[in-house]
Every structure is written in structure tokens, then in C-alpha cells.
Design brief:
This protein is of the alpha/beta class. It has helices at residues 23-36, 60-68, 86-92, 99-112, 134-140, 155-169, 195-202, 216-225, and strands at residues 11-16, 41-45, 47-49, 78-80, 115-119, 144-150, 173-179, 208-210. β3 (47-49), α2 (60-68) and β4 (78-80) form a beta-alpha-beta unit.
Length: 226
Amino acid sequence: MRSGSAVTPRLWIVTGTDTGIGKTWVTCRLAETLRARGTRVRAIKFLESGTDPEPSESEDGVKLARAAGQASPSAALRRYRAPLTPADAARLEGQTVELAPIETEMIRIACEAESTLVEGAGGLLAPLNHRRTLLDVARRHAASVLVVAADRLGTLNHTLLTLSMLDFSGVPCAGVVMNRLPDADPATDPSVGRNAATLHEVRPATPIVETAHPGWDEVVLGWLRT
Ligand SMILES: Nc1ncnc2c1ncn2[C@@H]1O[C@H](COP(=O)(O)OP(=O)(O)O)[C@@H](O)[C@H]1O
Ligand SMILES: [Mg+2]
């Protein structure tokens, strides 16, 4: 991992197939499990849009900080008001998202921790500014990417598109977390509980776990160690 530091930080980037599919939930659970093991963990929201003027409990960055038990950063590294992709939310505030200083902050934080989980904004190709995405950040820092997918109809296409883009870009995928959202109901969506098995059949080399199975977090942390 290139960090400009003698210390190689353990940095994992968490992305997902969409917004609202459990990236923050999964990242918080992983941070809590690491913390319970006594690992010095940091959980960071890279950019957050749709924020109030002051950080509130509903913000991803605040939830992640609480889960990791960190005083700093206590909220996302950059926060924007409008509930839009960061590129557009920043533009509405007359700003352009400059990624280099944010990445420098991210690496500085990661160098102080044993494990650092970084949640992006939206999916892998959501514009962070009008030229760059989270994929560029992952590539630049040789970070492994964890993909969170919603266990529902349509997820196979979204997940395979995300994995294809990682493959195409030469960015390693740590694995896929197939997340059972609270409103998922196998009675009305028979893909719930089947998507992981189908994905495994299509991509047998990609590690896949389901949050519906207790102990999934330990499995994921096993991937992240390697
Ligand atoms: N496995 C889960 N169990 C319970 N609640 C979940 C689970 N996954 C997501 N949620 C809830 O669903 C909502 C959206 O999840 P969130 O993690 O914020 O999505 P994202 O970060 O992808 O936008 C949140 O209220 C979150 O607490
Ligand atoms: Mg989130």
C-alpha cells in the first residue's frame, strides 16, 4: 500500500451496490467487532452529503465514529448539505471536492490505527467530484474493496457490475457482504436468501457472506486480515 509513510496502514474501502443498502450498518458492525477484540480501529465516512449544519446522530460519519469508539474524526471528513452525489452537493455550496487533501487525512488516520474502514458515498462510481470516484481512491491507495449488496431482486446485476468494474480496474475485491435489509421478505421476494448462492455459482472465486447468518462479521474480518 502506498501511503507516503513507513507504516503500512490497513485500509479497507467499503462500497455498495447502491445507497441505502447497509454500507454504514455493515461497517459499524465490523468496527464494533474489531473494537471488542481490542483492535485499534477507525471507521471513517469519506464524504457525506445530505447533512444538517451540525453533525447529528443520523449521519453515517457520526455512527461510524461511535461504533469505532473514536473521538476523531467524529463525523465525515467532508460534509455537504444537499442530499446529492458529493460532486453536485459540493457544487451547490460553490465548492469543488479536492480529493488529495481528503486522502491525505484518510492515510494519516489509518497510520494511527491497526485497521481502518472507509465508507464511500453511494456506489463505486458515484461522482465524488466530476472527474473522480471511490474507485480512483481505492486504486491510488492499493486498497481492498468490500462490496455490500442488498439481498433483494436485482442485486445480482448490480453486484456483478460492481465486481466487473473492480476486475477491469485491477482493484482487489475483499468480498461481498449480502445484506438482509429489515424490510426484506422472502415471502414477497423469493430472491432473498438465494442471491448469495447464485452469486457464488457465478463467481466462485469471490468470497461471499450473508448477514442473515450469525458470525458473518468474523468471516469478513478473516478476509480483511489476508
Ligand atoms: N442488516 C441490517 N439489519 C438491520 N438494519 C439494517 C441492516 N442493514 C441496514 N439496516 C438499516 O437500513 C438503513 C439503511 O442502511 P445504511 O447502512 O444506512 O445504508 P447505506 O450506508 O448503504 O446508505 C439504516 O436504517 C440501517 O440501520
Ligand atoms: Mg451509509
